[in-house]
Amino acid sequence: MRYFISAGEASGDLHAGELITQLRQCDAGADFAFLGGDCMTAATGGTAPVIHYRDMAYMGFSEVIRHLPDVGRNLRRAREALTDFRPDALILVDYPSFNLRLAKYASTLGIPVYYYISPKLWAWKAWRLKTIRRLVRRVYSILPFEEDWFARRGYTVEYVGNPSVEEVERRIASLVASQPQSGDKPILALVPGSRAGEIRCNLPIMAEVARRHPELRPVIAAAPAINPALYESCGGSGIELVHASTLEVMKGATAALVTSGTATLECALCSTPQVVLYRSGGSRILYKLFRPLIRVPWVSLPNLIADREVIPEMLMYRCTPDLVDAELRAILTPEGRDGQLDGYREMRRRLGDRPAAATAARLLTADLLSLRH
Q: Rounded to whole angstroms, how far apart are CA atoms 133 and 215?
């Protein structure tokens, strides 16, 4: 069968790459076209993306507005590719603003649509459920609490496990952790995100906090497809930069400053205490304007999964060097560290042990076969 997969950023490319590997296990004749990146290219055996995610990943309202012509061109290219490839299924990986538009077009072609890694409707834009109900045949969830959230709204999704659990545990087992050598300072991991906008907003705060801790060795976990000059211009001058090894940096660190997103879950799975940052403009007025629209008490995945505050979240106007530094100092104490590690263990228990990509691939191919009968 033919599969068209749409992933718009680095984490989606990683998870979609594993899904492709598992789909090939379930379907020996699988053929792929995709929007994504290098992980998906490797999983397909060398197929190039129709559009690379580095040309798609825009953060925040203002950045999207500035790049509206690019977004429009990408959508046209994706539609043309979908028409030419005529897949048996369109598989969406998060990235809802773009992907739901592509789903609408797929529906006009009679192509069944599946969602692997659902949009976070429980946090933001719950009205999108109407669109998903209309356009998406099956949703395969990677967060255990989503089954109940959707069920209470009359829509069934299936929790297939969380891909970060397998990916992190597999990579940790295969690497020699980046622990400091004898006599070296402990590492402070700086993880400012995978998109240029995130890095511009968050790295200056992280770098300022790091400079207040001469007893630590700051290391920036650089994202793939990001020009190293961006880190230099955003406060990272003189700070060690490590490319394409975010997990290794976090695993080897004594603590981490992490931009909100999938990396917070990966850091928790590495058992590294962390402070979560997210600054986009940072205005108190904007925070007060948008906070009531967010329907959950936390935004970071470890807190949401554990259903309590495990890690401190320094968001918007609260994301300042002084406030972030205070939280970092707290988790550098034995009490603060032990408190986070207890929360991580509860989070891991709730995630369970289902192999996410393998489970999703099995369910998806079985459903497609049922459509043929």
A: 53
